[in-house]
Amino acid sequence: MKTNILGLNPQKTVEISNNLNELLSSFQTYYQNLRGIHWNIKGKQFFELHVKFEELYDDANMKVDEIAERILTLGEVPLHTFEDYQKTSKVAVGKNVSNDADAVQLIVSSLSSLLTLERNILELAANANDEGTNALMSDLITQQEKTIWMMQSWLG
User: Fold this and answer.
1) What is the CATH classification number for the domain harbouring 100?
2) Any domain includes 3
3) Which of 130, 10, 117, 114 is nearest to 70 (CA)?
4) In angstroms, rounded to a whole number, what is the distance separating the alpha carbons of residues 122 and 129?
5) 56 is in which domain, residue-wise?
6) Residue 147 CA to chain centroid, in angstroms?
7) What's the number of domains the chain is made of?
8) Burial code of 65-97, b = ≥16 C-beta within 10 A, e = fewer?
9) 83-138 pLDDT tens trace
10) Got the DSSP string for 114-129?
11) How many CA within 13 A on the CB side of residue 152?
12) If you placed Cys at 25, which of 7, 85, 111, 116 could pair as Cys (CB 3.0 to 4.6 Å)?
């Protein structure tokens, strides 16, 4: 079997990269949702949530970079236009969300969509013996599951 410079099957890395690009697009939508709710949140929880949403979008921004760099490491090109993101994203766009519970619910549903994508990539990476992608997905999943738990707790 022919392998690439990383010792991985080239066809499998293309499939993984395509799925990573779908995740990248979805993360960009999630990131933009977080920016929107950070800017537009209103109500008695404003100060608490405004800070939390900034923390989450800073974290999402770093994860976007990690995903794009993994795609590059696999020898492919990360998507990088809003047009591509809109076509490819699996995360719903949250527009004009300013209510605290609606904002937190948007985070939960967005993360749930991301988890579905990540678990699929985790399976593809395991089947390709791609430990680098596997490790990235495992870290993302662990962190996002914890965030969902915390947001669900906030919602009551």
Assistant:
1) 1.20.1260.10
2) no
3) 130
4) 10
5) 10-155
6) 12
7) 1
8) eebbebbeebebebbeeeeebeebbebeebeeb
9) 999 999 999 999 999 999 999 999 999 999 999 999 999 999 999 999 999 999 99
10) HHHHHHHHHHHHHHTT
11) 11
12) 85
